[in-house]
Amino acid sequence: MGWLRITVAATCGAMAVCGTGAPGVAAADDGSHAKKKPQLMFQSTGERPGQLVDLEVTGVRTRHEKIVVSSPAFSHPLRLAYHQDPMMESAWGLSYRARAAIAMKTGPGAYPLTVEIAGRVTERGTVHVVAAPRPSFEVTGDLDGQRPGAPVGLSYDDLYPGETGTSFTVRSKAFKAPVPLKHDENGGYWHLPRMFEAAPDVRPDAKDGTYKVVLTGPKGQVIDEGRLKVRASRPGDYDYTGKGRGPEFYRKRGDIEVSGRHFRVKAGGRMQVVWRDGSPDPGEEERLTATSPAFEGPVRLKRDDSKAGDGDDPRFYGSARIRSDLDGGSYPVTVVSHHGRVKRSNGIVVTAAPGHHADKPGQDDAGSGGIPPMAVIGAGAGTLAMGAAVIMLRRARRARADDSR
Q: Is residue 164 packed enough to be buried (19+ CB in 10 Å), middle (13-18) or exposed (0-12)?
């Protein structure tokens, strides 16, 4: 990835390279912190002209030191700045960092590198530069065919001497609209300042076939072309119907792992709907819904991207509000997925709001919590009878005690 790290250590620890600065040689840590000759360690896997590298010097004893890294591979000497890192400072001392670029005019070869602290060369090394590859346009997808709705990787790498411009667009009938490519300074290709990327979704209604993907420049001129194979899942494929489970119901977002089989909710209340699928259809994050005659409207189910979902099958959840004008009774909740190929329902019991009563035989009263009214009365009568019997028994015992005196 073009990572270049230079470390000057005040002590020869387990991670320090000792002696001549040869890479890959490590000294054992004997627990000694005596002052020794500064050491150099770096990893140069072969950088391209124009590529960025991160430089770091650690083990510096005091702040405000003038630390300079120089190499003919750079366009000019680079002064490093203090970088606060308490964890590193406790083990290796103060840290200084900077980001440099291999000069575009640098040809292939090995170039010397020096580290100076307060004007004194403390160590030397080597930077290896490789030839610049020609600009390349890549279309990345499943070789067997990208599913409709699935994202496709697009990248244009033109880190090459003489290349200019930052506005590039990809067009294809496989995408809903032209796709602009951009450089992400914090992405995985931060070290290639002329890497432009995008990840558009294939149209959900795209038919099976091979599509032309065209890269154009700032003025609309064609720079390069690629191919994208699209193939929808078919009967027998592992993802044709997926591995759907649900829908399941919960009272709160935090209760996502505590589901009940016979779920009850009050009219006008809220509930959570959860759907799980080991192989969801691409793009279902945008179209998966739960519907019910008990809901105020369709409920969009969003994918759970939190750490709580790590290691589990992909799951989708959403919050539903129950209609406040419902009578008590059972209502179905339905989820349709995989472009209509999967349809599953589960029931909920709604307890009526105040002023509404169940008018169908066999339905529960809203305030009983699922226990018939006569059962509640009977339970209360039983409790009263038991209390009366206890009082009568106590009176009989007192009478016998008085007679014995």
A: exposed
Look up residue 42 and give its two tokens: 């770096």
Residue 86: φ, ψ to 5° = -55, -35
Average pLDDT per block of 10 residues along the chain, 405 residues long: 40 32 35 47 83 88 87 94 76 82 96 92 91 96 93 97 94 98 95 97 95 95 97 93 93 64 88 94 91 97 77 89 93 94 94 60 36 33 42 50 47
Phi, psi angles (nearest 5°) of residue 368: -90, -15
DSSP states of 88-142 as a string? HHHHH-EEEEEEEEB-TTPPSEEEEEEEEETTEEEEEEEEEE-PPPPPEEEEE--
Give every CB contact of residue 192 below 8 A, 6+ residues apart in sequence: 2, 48, 50, 51, 52, 157, 159
3-state SS, one letter per residue, for 156-202: EECCCCCCCCCCEEEECCCCCCCEEEECCCCCCCCCCCCEEEECCEC
How do strand 195-198 and strand 81-83 relate by DSSP bridges? unpaired
Q: Which pTM value belongs to this model?
A: 0.70
| pLDDT given for residue 22 in this prediction | 35
Please, what is the Cα angle at 317 between 314 and 322, to 5 degrees? 160
What's 226's DSSP letter? E
Assign 3-class secondary structure to 239-274.
CCCCCEEEEEEECCHHHCCCCCCCCEEECCCEEEEE
Residue 100 is predicted with a pLDDT of: 92
> For residue 167, how far is the Cα from the chain centroid?
28
8 A C-beta contact, residue 170 and residue 214: yes
Q: What is the pLDDT of residue 110?
A: 96
